[in-house]
Specification:
Elements lengths: L24 E7 L1 E2 L11 E2 L6 H15 L8 E8 L7 H14 L2 E11 L6 H10 L3 E7 L3 H6 L6 H14 L2 E8 L6 H14 L3 E6 L7 H4 L7 H17 L3 E4 L2 E3 L6 H7 L3 E5 L4 E6 L2 E6 L4 H9 L6 E4 L5 H9 L6 E2 L2 H6 L7 H9 L3 E3 L3 E4 L1 H5 L1 H6 L9
Parallel strand pairs: 1-4, 1-11, 2-3, 4-5, 5-6, 6-7, 7-8
Antiparallel strand pairs: 8-10, 9-10, 12-13, 13-14, 15-17, 16-17
Bound molecules: S-adenosylmethionine (SAM) and iron/sulfur cluster (SF4).
């Protein structure tokens, strides 16, 4: 990959954001309940203490979709992701009704990837088979670890055996299965992290996500931090994860994502390629492009507040146009997570900004050895991947004059 910055020819003067063509559209559906809140988790998930109002929530999701249709009129959907929370708490009948309602209102392209997130503590053969019949073709399992001590420290509702069984069951019913693992866990040694990743690779799921455990604000771990591996040890764990998965034939295509060739997550790739997504459900986010710019939407986080808002005829808590000054950072924050980077033309196509808008930042990143730039591609170097935050900071609006 060339390290030299190749001039990109642009006709005329800088202009405000205008999009010549709309990007690919995907659909995200949020399910906001879990059996128990994990102490490290800041996702919009609520303990289902008084049961889950499943029929009412399904009705709200369908009404939300109806209310959202004018914003995505005529655009086909390339992937659907039902995430949470723990969507596998939903009955197969509800998932079936949800997907039928989506298909009746939107054109879901043939062969679209349809993922559902599942917790190994909720895995049953009958349920997995029924999800598959409902049209789900990819299952994402939150395993986190195979070590009983770490599963207990993470407050997980399943043990290692249940996690293994859930993965095997998922592989029986779905061609594509993802397994989520975390490393740098409380009190974890390098050998323990290596054992976890080897156990995950041995199960042979087509896709694996390995996340560095982070202390997120508003979590129990943030309030009372457990003893965590230091940065040096965590970096060695990350190297062990990458080496083990490379040895097992997984491509490392994004910061935390590994896949067998051709099994990359198409839904997440659409986020990283700065595609569009409609997000329905409590706390769901959406990003939708129009010829005159990009808008972001947010729904109320709390399930009851969300259902009330939908009932009142407007699911949206907030909707705003993204300022042109924020677009370079937003684009790069996604694109530079990809190991291979993105086609150079994508910046202008997706943001509507002329390529020269970011020329000074690209030059600074190349000079610091963080980015490879050619006429064809923008890609982080190995150094840029390791110091991704430093690379991204160059694209923050206040650094525009770098
Ligand atoms: C929304 S959860 C989905 C799965 C399901 N709710 C479960 O936990 O089994 C997505 C994934 O994000 C990861 N994750 C959650 N909190 C994290 C944190 N604080 N640091 C790193 N990864 C985290 C976990 O691997 C988790 O499986
Ligand atoms: S089960 Fe998943 S979404 Fe729910 S609290 Fe735990 S990590 Fe968060």
């Amino acid at each position: 990959m060339a390290r030299r910055l190749v001039p990109i020819a642009v006709a005329g003067q800088p202009r405000p954001a205008t999009l010549a063509a709309l990007p690919t559209l995907s659909l995200y559906v949020h399910f906001p309940w879990c059996l128990r809140k994990c102490p490290y988790c800041d996702f919009n998930s609520h303990e289902a203490r008084d049961g889950i109002p499943e029929p009412a929530y399904l009705a709200a999701l369908i009404a939300d979709l109806e209310q959202s249709l004018p914003a995505v009129w005529g655009r086909p959907v390339t992937s659907v992701f039902i995430g949470g929370g723990t969507p596998s708490l939903m009955s197969a009948d509800t998932v079936d009704a949800l997907l039928a309602a989506v298909r009746a209102r939107l054109t879901v392209l043939p062969g679209a990837e349809i993922t559902l997130e599942a917790n190994p503590g909720t895995a049953e053969a009958g349920r997995f088979a029924a999800y598959r019949s409902a049209g789900v073709n990819r299952l994402s399992l939150g395993v986190q670890s195979f070590n009983p001590r770490h599963l207990a420290a993470l407050g997980r509702i399943h043990d290692a055996l249940e996690a293994r069984r859930a993965v095997e069951l998922a592989l029986d019913h779905f061609d594509n299965v993802n397994l989520d693992l975390m490393y740098a866990l409380p009190g974890q040694t390098l050998e323990e992290a290596r054992a976890d990743i080897r156990a995950a690779a041995a199960l042979g799921t087509p896709h694996l996500s390995a996340y560095h455990l982070t202390l997120e604000p508003n979590t129990a771990f943030h309030r009372a931090p457990p003893p965590l591996p230091d940065a040096d040890l965590a970096a060695r764990m990350q190297d062990a994860v990458e080496e083990t998965l490379a040895w097992h034939g997984y491509g490392h295509y994004e910061v935390s994502a590994f896949a067998r060739p051709g099994e990359e997550c198409r839904h997440n790739l659409n986020y990283w390629l700065f595609g569009d997504y409609l997000g329905i459900g409590a706390g769901a986010h959406g990003k939708l492009s129009a010829p005159d710019g990009i808008r972001r939407q947010t729904r109320p986080r709390h399930p009851q507040a969300y259902m009330r808002a939908v009932e009142g005829g407007n699911a949206m808590e907030e909707a705003h146009a993204v300022a042109a000054a924020d677009l370079p950072f937003e684009f790069m924050m996604n694109a530079l997570r990809l190991t291979e980077g993105v086609p150079a033309r994508l910046f202008a196509e997706r943001t509507g900004l002329p390529p020269e808008t970011i020329r000074p930042q690209l030059e600074a990143a190349v000079a610091r050895g963080l980015l490879d730039v050619s006429a064809e591609r923008l890609a982080p170097t190995a150094l840029g991947r390791r110091f991704l935050n430093d690379l991204l900071q160059l694209f923050l609006p206040e650094r525009a004059e770098v």
